Amino acid sequence: GIFYFLWLGAHAQGGNGWVGPYDVTKILAADPEAMQKPDSPLWGPIHAPHHWGEPLFGYYRTDDPYVLRRHAQMLSDAGVDFVVFDVTNQITYREWYTALLETWSQVRAEGGRTPQVAFLCPFWQPDKVVRELWADLYESGLYPDLWYHLDGKPLILADPHLLGGMTGLSEHGYPTRLLPGQVLGQSFTAPQAFDSVAVATPTWNEQGSHATIRLRAGGPTGTVLAEATAQELFDNDWLTLANPNGWPAGEYTIELSEPTGTVGWWGVTRDALPDGTALLDGEPVEGDRTLRLTYVGGTGDPMRDFFTFRKPQPDYFVGPTGPDQWSWLEVYPQHVFHNAAGEREMMGVGVAQNAVDQRLGSMSEPDAKGRAWHNGAWDPDPAAVDLGLNFVEQAEHALAEDPRIVFVTGWNEWIAGRFTSFGGVDYR
To answer: What pTM, to 2 d.p., does this model score?
Structure first.
């Protein structure tokens, strides 16, 4: 499979008062010092999409049937079985994926070949996007021959625990560190049956932290309904307890205890949940802690039965945190992601990674892992950028591990926004 980008619409050639396209390669050719001149008139406005170079087919739009046909031919000739559309920004790009599906359907009707398609949905709040795709495409039965199937059902990259109705407190106001021997808690009232409850856990960038999450009926001395010990927590991830049969409406307490390493719980100092309170060792304390409930029923149920879900892992470094997850991009050496049956299901392969040390960065940072990055460093040859050394290193690693599926990032991500800061780095 390969990552495919739909957003080369009108905004890539102009819009919002922008006069595009803006091409970084041509800007630097006109003024090699432009990277040190943020106020140069050669640059487009802040936030305006900039092409990194001119595509083979020119500055095309994603609804150009000629380009879409060439893409189908090129990808099929390369042995690509499916493309995954990037809809992680809460926009489905319906107009653009419909143009592609219509064109590729025509190609198939004429006897040609095309890849099949799937979608990568938002990592933390996928419900809106999944519902729109379900209503606009899948439930309507449009272009079913183009849907990519995994385990007998259309594949969608979305966390199924985040579908359906949700409520709670997601604000990260301040973190409370969980000390050995302590029990942090939050009481809450569920107005209807729910099938998962989650808490947001900072680790202050420390890896290898563990903690136990526990759900009780009623208050802090109530019957334990479920518990689990996270084998490894990741900074600011949501630690989740799930029950496919659901728990009924009522009063509950969720707890975090038994820490190993550095772990905490995000919260706020004000009373944000009217039917609950933060707890420390069973006693009320000021404020409330983050909490996320997903409810049984609603719009999620038909979709749960229709799709094969794989939870997308956004992190470039930590690898899978459980079964039935997929990566989209990782630094070398990439991890193997297993399914619930324990099979070596997939690995990601990237052309480059906007990773700097152990954080996300901009590709314009000197230490970002660009196309000439391999063997842990930049290749000193100025021509190395054209050799695909980063991609080759990752591809060879994936071939040696031999998973069922290799997912390549990416095909046609020609544009990126222009920003004054990113990842904590100020570029002004």
So the answer is: 0.82
